[in-house]
């Protein structure tokens, strides 16, 4: 059984998708062993409803060092699912190839500091992009610079707004996140 640690900052919809796909057998031979949040959020409640251990580490300069102390040694994968804190370089380097993130754009476009959530969708519309989508990528010390594992795109229409893009991107995230997790775990 492979152990997954999920980091969250918000409502935990991608966490829920991971839990659901594990329970449905779509992600095989794996379990969410721990959910860590950097603030009080509904993602912690989702984990508790499924009897998954949770830890809250308040956001701040010591977050990565505190996180390093509690990540079980037998962790096979660390998944950032709507996680908004930046992990320190040393933490990323210690877990090279074992940390993945989902990003609401087609990296390398619309990545980096400040490019999260609705900020991304506003930027896509303002830039007049013809397509958008989501990327699952490895986490490295550079923000959103890790190698892409999986991307999926869709056409941006003239009628699209940041809100409609967000809805479309979420659907793609729910689709590709479990596939990428299986790929990284070797399933």
From TrEMBL:
Gene3D superfamilies: Formyl transferase, N-terminal domain. It catalyses: N(1)-(5-phospho-beta-D-ribosyl)glycinamide + (6R)-10-formyltetrahydrofolate = N(2)-formyl-N(1)-(5-phospho-beta-D-ribosyl)glycinamide + (6S)-5,6,7,8-tetrahydrofolate + H(+). The record marks 144 as: Raises pKa of active site His. GO terms for molecular function: phosphoribosylglycinamide formyltransferase activity. The active site is at residue 103. Catalyzes the transfer of a formyl group from 10-formyltetrahydrofolate to 5-phospho-ribosyl-glycinamide (GAR), producing 5-phospho-ribosyl-N-formylglycinamide (FGAR) and tetrahydrofolate. This is Phosphoribosylglycinamide formyltransferase. It comes from Chryseobacterium rhizosphaerae.
């Amino acid at each position: 059984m492979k152990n997954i640690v999920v980091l969250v900052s918000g409502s935990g919809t991608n966490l829920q998708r991971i839990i659901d796909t594990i329970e449905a057998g779509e992600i095989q031979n794996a379990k969410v062993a721990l959910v860590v949040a950097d603030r009080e959020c509904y993602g912690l409640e989702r984990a508790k409803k499924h009897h998954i251990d949770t830890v809250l580490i308040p956001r701040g300069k010591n977050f990565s060092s505190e996180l390093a102390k509690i990540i079980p040694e037998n962790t096979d994968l660390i998944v950032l699912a709507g996680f908004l804190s930046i992990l320190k370089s040393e933490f990323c380097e210690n877990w090279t190839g074992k940390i993945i993130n989902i990003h609401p754009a087609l990296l390398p476009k619309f990545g980096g500091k400040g490019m999260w959530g609705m900020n991304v969708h506003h930027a896509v519309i303002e830039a007049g992009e013809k397509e958008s989508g989501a990327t699952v990528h490895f986490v490295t010390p550079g923000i959103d610079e890790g190698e892409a594992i999986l991307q999926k795109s869709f056409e941006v229409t003239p009628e699209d707004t940041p809100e409609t893009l967000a809805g479309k991107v979420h659907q793609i995230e729910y689709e590709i996140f479990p596939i990428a997790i299986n790929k990284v775990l070797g399933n």
